[in-house]
Design brief:
CATH class: Alpha Beta
CATH superfamily: Gcn5-related N-acetyltransferase (GNAT)
Number of strands: 5
Largest sheet: 5 strands, mixed
Radius of gyration: 16 Å
Number of helices: 4
Strand order of the largest sheet: 1-2-3-4-5
Order of helices and strands: EHHEEEHEH
CATH topology: Aminopeptidase
Shape: globular
Distance between the termini: 51 Å
């Protein structure tokens, strides 16, 4: 079993290092802006960041966002975001460990379901999510993008 825990304030630098090695997206910059955002994330109700730690180094992470809901019998919605595993340890169970911890927390929080979107075309990514318990094709995702300011 891999060591998974809730991220803490002191994890920011290690998390930014993990994100920097990612092919998914850039992290917030400059460092003071990232620190401010990190403080907001950690203090927000219904937001949890899970990390896998190996020998003091963060190697996988994901963020669970839960929100109240008047529908579905009052059960919450869960959203999984920012799933990331360091490339040199993929396939060793660290991603499944952080996603599994997030799903367990969502079920404990009485979520009706947990939604996840992926913009990745790599079929391995989609097989990974299916092995974690996500079912493709149940929903259609739409994305509205903010138009560039002239």
């Amino acid at each position: 079993m891999h060591d998974v825990r809730i991220a803490r304030q002191a994890d920011l630098d290690a998390l930014l290092k993990l994100f920097a090695a990612s092919e998914v997206s850039r992290a917030a910059e400059p460092a003071d802006r990232a620190a401010q955002i990190w403080s907001q994330i950690l203090s927000r109700d219904g937001v949890s960041v899970f990390v896998a730690d190996r020998a003091g180094e963060l190697i996988a992470t994901c963020m669970l966002i839960t929100i109240p809901n008047l529908l579905r019998g009052g059960r919450q919605h869960g959203f999984l975001e920012n799933v990331l595993v360091r490339s040199d340890v993929r396939g060793q169970g660290y991603g499944r460990a952080v996603v599994g911890a997030a799903l367990a927390a969502a079920w404990t929080a009485d979520c009706f379901h947990v939604l996840l979107q992926s913009g990745r075309a790599d079929p391995r990514v989609h097989r990974f999510y299916a092995r974690c318990g996500f079912e493709p094709g149940l929903r259609t995702a739409y994305v509205a993008r903010r138009r560039p300011v002239a």
